[in-house]
Amino acid sequence: MNQNFQQKILVNYPNWMDKLRLKGFRITRPLQIVSEILANCDSILNPSEVYLQAKEKYPRIGIVTVYRTMEKLEQAGLIDRVHMPDGCQSFFKASSGHQHLLVCQNCGKAEYFEGDNLNLFFKNIGDQFGYKINDHWLQIFGLCKNCQ
Amino acid sequence: MNQNFQQKILVNYPNWMDKLRLKGFRITRPLQIVSEILANCDSILNPSEVYLQAKEKYPRIGIVTVYRTMEKLEQAGLIDRVHMPDGCQSFFKASSGHQHLLVCQNCGKAEYFEGDNLNLFFKNIGDQFGYKINDHWLQIFGLCKNCQ
DNA sequence: TTGATTGCAAATATTTTGCAGGCAT
DNA sequence: ATGCCTGCAAAATATTTGCAATCAA
């Protein structure tokens, strides 16, 4: 909730609406609310958490709409499901490119990091076992500065 | 279901019973059945799949027991939860050491691979973002030889 | 105006809990 | 004999679907 936070709203959010429009989705109030929350949060969020936050801005929203909206955001490539040791109900805004994530086990704060040079390594592992590689996940868990 | 398969029963299974005994669990028939299935399968399995296989050998088993038994196996470090893009209900026998997994998206066949040299890389990422790293996941998805 | 989207209620699916009886130790 | 483990039923969670009303385009 700092300067960066405000900035991200201005930069990312209109972009999200464009992509959603392009996908043929209608820009409704619930969709805007849910998008805002996810576009501007630097931690992973599950549907109930999004629902609770959304209710504050738009009390008549239902959790079903949150589920359906998050599905659309995922389809549009705007958010990704994040897998944690104890579950995988949470989502985080997608990065353009890699999906290498560093997540705080306590508060859920997340950051993307670079790991381009790993692609060759993955291909090699695939060859070694006779697999045709389609995708990979690299995720690191720990405690962020605030939670240590 | 080849030569290796039979061999793994002989090598791993007694070891599993020892570890379970050591943890203070009682060696019951349902626990043996569920252990056998998981110890000897080279694909990831979810509780319902284990349940179906278990029922063939021991019809009176209930799915609740499968859940509870798999929880024990996880506690004993004998199986690990495996996360896939579409869910994380499946488990796979644990490796001694790393948890770097290569999984077939079609049939669930899985293999562990080496990636020791990555630990330093992970530590560096942690330092860079101010996180204290506790754990990591590296998983590769693709199609195995049979499923290509 | 048109049909995609919403919110409610209900249905599914998945996992957990309570409890009396059974079985490993 | 003790008390952990089992299987059933029921409860708790999480997610999806049906449908009439609403609202973006």
How would you sum up this structure in a few lines?
2 copies of one chain form a homodimer. The first copy, chain A, contains 5 helices and 5 strands, in the order ααααββββαβ.
* Net shape of chain A: globular
Share of β-strand residues of chain A: 15-25%
Global Rg of chain A? 17 Å
Quaternary organisation: homodimer
Distance between the termini of chain A: 19 Å
Largest interface: A-B, 34 and 34 residues
Write the CATH architecture name of chain A: Orthogonal Bundle
Features:
globular, two-stranded antiparallel sheet, 148 residues, alpha+beta, DNA-binding, disordered N terminus, Arc Repressor Mutant, subunit A, homodimer, 22% strand, three-stranded mixed beta sheet
Plain-language structure description:
Two copies of one chain form a homodimer. In chain A, the strands form two sheets. In chain A, strands 4-3-5 form a three-stranded mixed β-sheet, covered by helices on one side. The first copy, chain A, has one domain: Winged helix-like DNA-binding domain superfamily/Winged helix DNA-binding domain (Arc Repressor Mutant, subunit A). The model of chain A is unreliable at 1-11 (pLDDT under 50). In chain A, α2 packs across α3 (47-57). Chain A is an alpha+beta fold and 148 residues long. Chain A is 45% helix and 22% strand. Chain A is globular and about 55 Å long. Chain A has helices at 3-22, 29-39, 47-57, 63-75, 118-129; strands at residues 79-84, 87-93, 100-104, 110-112, 132-143. In chain A, β1 (79-84) and β2 form a beta hairpin. Chain A starts with a helix and ends in a 5-residue tail after the last strand. The first copy, chain A, binds a DNA duplex (25 and 25 nucleotides) through α2 and α4.
